[in-house]
Design a protein that fits this description.
Domain Fe2OG dioxygenase: 89-186
Organism: Shewanella intestini
Strand content: 35-45%
CATH topology: Jelly Rolls
Protein name: Alpha-ketoglutarate-dependent dioxygenase AlkB
Radius of gyration: 16 Å
Distance between the termini: 47 Å
InterPro entries: AlkB-like (IPR027450), AlkB-like_sf (IPR037151), ALKBH3 (IPR032854), Oxoglu/Fe-dep_dioxygenase_dom (IPR005123)
CATH class: Mainly Beta
Oligomer: single chain
GO molecular function, one term: dioxygenase activity
Number of strands: 14
Strand order of the largest sheet: 1-12-9-14-7-4
CATH superfamily: Alpha-ketoglutarate-dependent dioxygenase AlkB-like
Shape: globular
Number of helices: 2
Amino acid sequence: MINIEPPISIYKRFMTQQQCAALMDEVSSYPLARIAVQVYGKRHLIPRTQVWFGEAGCDYKYSNTLISPRMWPPVLRQVAQQFMAFEPNINAVLVNHYADGKECMGWHSDNEPEIVASSAIVSLSIGASRDFVIRHKVHKQSFKYLLSQGDVLVMPPLMQQQWQHALPKRLKVNKARVNFTFRHIKPHFYLK
């Protein structure tokens, strides 16, 4: 077996408990929605709720669903400023809300063409601790990381070409988890 570790960086408790609690309160005012995506020709509701924020023209498309950004909330803009050392060109964020351990995210790569390939993706977790798994696309070797409140995970440029990641179900988890993935999107990639 080839032992290749994923090229990620994890910063434990990057944000304080107070910052996380304030951010969780903020999320309760967001227009979270459970959208429908197309998988293998069938429409399905995703097993989580989410909202996409960003600069004008930073549309995001996955599973044949185009999402236009809502205007940045001031609090999230401030949070993004804290991550500019990891990725200086953040202009959008996907907020995923998992009500409990039944809600999840399947294996995928964030390799949509509107994401600038030479940029890092910065991920902040608040709420319940959950396993985050990463596997190599060719070797299938996988790694599991427990992400807890205030942890930041940075996926470097070009990682998405070789790796997939997921948030598996954890039925014993009965508290909410929120994940924010800050990204650099090519503005006006999808002209309407």
